[in-house]
Amino acid sequence: xxxFNSTLKTASAILLASALLPGAALxxxxxxxxxxxxxxxxxxxxxGAIRAGNAEGTIPAWESTPIKGVEGGxxxxxxxxxxDEKPLFTITAANYTEYEGQLTAGQVALFKQYPExxxxxxxxxxxxxxxxxxxxxxxLAQAKNVKICDDLEAEGRICMQDxxxxxxxxxxxPKDGFEAAYSNFYSYRGTTIDxxxxxxxxxxNGNRTDVTIKIRQAWxxxxxxxxxxxxxxxxxxxxxxxxxxxxxxxxxxxxxGLVFGGCNYVDKFDFxxxxxxxxxxxxxxxxxxxxxxxPSFGSDGQRTVASRFMFYFGGSYPRHNISDPVxxxxxxxxxxxxxxxxxTPYDEIFGKSHTNPELxxxxxxxxxxxxxxxxxxxxxxxxxxxxxxxxxxxxxxAFEAYNGKDELxxxxxxxxxxxxxxxxxxxxxxxxxxxxxxRYTSYPYSPYQAGKEMGTGAPIFGSKPTNEIGFxxxxxxxQGLRKFGRR
Length: 487
Hints:
This protein has 487 residues and is α+β, with helices and mostly antiparallel strands. 14% of the residues lie in helices and 28% in strands. It has ten helices and 19 strands.
């Protein structure tokens, strides 16, 4: 695995003076804006989405009650509540110019690059991004207090201040791109998850390497103030852990047993990660994991941390300025329940050049769009990075990344589904395509297929603020990794 050049951290510090962000919005929401948010009867939903449908009737009004789902799941799969629906129309290379105003730049590029195989089946829109009441209450409580810390304007450091424990989308009415990016990062994916994932690494000839990974994640940001996890020093430092993550490679055999664990924090976005290397039987600090444009863990250098969740700060000192968010109506992947069928084989999901379009559902939704532009004097693989977030959930939907020559280089989409029962929105697949070298990855999702393959079953979600982690949360600490190491 390539290690990111640690001297860039030093460069960031040296160039800090040029990273100042004049005019950054630091104030919390006004009373007038807070009054616009509510579960019922307000202009905006608790998440800040427009409650009403659009004028054309192609986007319906939002409803606060989560869908109930349907019978038919077997413990390994999640049944598709919209299985009987047919596409309204299909966008192809022959007709995409008729819809170009509602397509992302990445989709347009894919029509041009893969005119024979890439298509988009567009279905009726369902605004399934609705949660249990406590999620709304937490968001409304958080919005009254939290703000971007003063350090962003003073020295270019990203952090939050005045937050309250218990979760919530921090900035449902974002005043700038940093607030929008934070809301995406803390979009509600549940409080914990224990699952298998499968990564597909596909070369320019269509040859695929599968990587199977055991994934354990926790979002302490969403846990209540009384949560036991907050009594542990590792999770209470730096104003509290925001996100904790651990991946353990199961396949291929040559990498089996490689595992990392770590967390980032409300006041320290740098991911504090440690790595167990089975061949050495030791744990070491791994600053390259979760750092800016370093390669994603186990991805053979085919994707970077910057595009995780479609956008990721990458550290406490972002290297990009971020535009104010704008809202657009776009055709985006949504309600992708065909990917929650554990019996759908990998060979059917992954084509030679991109994901099988027959399995992907697109709908018209309102989307927040931000663009990150590299600061003068800083280095990063991506000169520009455009990201798209769902207005109802803040989940990432798509991104485009441009190289140093300002050429469109990598494009990606995230295939989310509303997981009824625990009532969370979670990615069940994604794709990131290199338009220049022709490789692509999906990494590391297909949780239902991977769970069946490895005999662990469907993903297990924690979905209440009082839930404690259903697995040993020592996996996120350097001391705990030594217990989990094998070989």
